[in-house]
Each structure stands twice: as structure tokens, then as C-alpha cells.
Design a protein that fits this description.
Length: about 140
């Protein structure tokens, strides 16, 4: 039996200013699956579902930069009050900080290859305050980040 590969998702976290804002949003009842885990409801169902749930994460873009990720637990069917079938991406609760990686705006979610994903911050640096966006952009432009 062949084991499927792993692929991540990347998504803009619209309306959040920081990783802490994302955590606060995910603690609301509206942002949770029936079992209390955070979820993100989206219209499109990933065609590469087996790869997504095989150890994939969702990488969150906040204020123009990837800042954190969450492991994807499962994909649930969600039918809204409008009767439209949607995909609820059910996540692990832990937000894992990553090295900041600048990302241009895009709509919806995209696949993100494991090899293209920014690495996690080392454990001792996870609580450090992120660099200001302008400084981060300047460093990226000269190839430092």
C-alpha cells in the first residue's frame, strides 16, 4: 500500500492584526467545530484531501506575512443555512509560530508544498515579538530573510 504525501494549505487571516487576534477569534463558539476544535469554513473542498489530512497544516498570513500555522485535524462537511455544502477545515488548537515569510494577497486558500513552507520558530523564540512589517519587508528585499 502506497502512503500518500503531505501538502499544506495557506490562507489569509482576514481582519486579524496578530497571532493573538487569531487565537481570540478561534476561541469563539462561531469559529469552533461541534467538538470545540477551531475550524475554518470554506466553500471549496480540497481535491488533495488525503494529502492535506496526512500531516498537513494551514499556514496563516496575517498582515501580509505568514506568521503561524496549525495542524489540520480533519475535513468535515458543513451545510450552511443557505443549503450550500462547504468544507470545515478542523484544526488542532495550538498556533505554532513560524519564521515570518512575506506573502502577497490572494483569495481563498492555496496549496503549499512542504518544501516551500516557512520553518517553525525555535522553541525559545516562539514568544518573541515579531519584527515590524516594514522592517521585515526591507530585510526580505535585500535577501536577509
Amino acid at each position: 500500500m502506497r502512503m500518500s504525501k503531505t501538502v499544506n494549505l495557506i490562507k489569509l487571516s482576514v481582519g486579524t492584526e496578530s497571532v493573538e487576534d487569531l487565537a481570540v477569534w478561534q476561541e469563539t463558539k462561531r469559529a469552533q467545530a461541534p467538538d470545540g476544535l477551531p475550524r475554518h469554513v470554506t466553500r471549496m473542498w480540497p481535491k488533495r484531501e488525503a494529502e492535506v489530512v496526512n500531516g498537513g497544516s494551514i499556514f496563516w498570513v496575517i498582515k501580509g506575512a505568514v506568521q503561524c500555522r496549525q495542524k489540520i485535524n480533519r475535513l468535515d462537511e458543513y451545510i450552511g443555512s443557505d443549503g450550500i455544502r462547504r468544507c470545515a477545515i478542523v484544526l488542532e488548537s495550538e498556533l505554532i509560530r513560524t519564521h515570518t515569510s512575506l506573502k502577497r494577497p490572494f483569495q481563498g486558500w492555496r496549496y503549499l508544498a512542504v518544501t516551500d513552507a516557512p520553518p517553525d520558530l525555535p522553541e525559545g523564540r516562539a514568544e518573541e515579538e515579531a519584527l515590524p512589517l516594514e522592517l521585515n519587508q526591507a530585510l526580505a528585499e535585500i535577501g536577509v530573510l
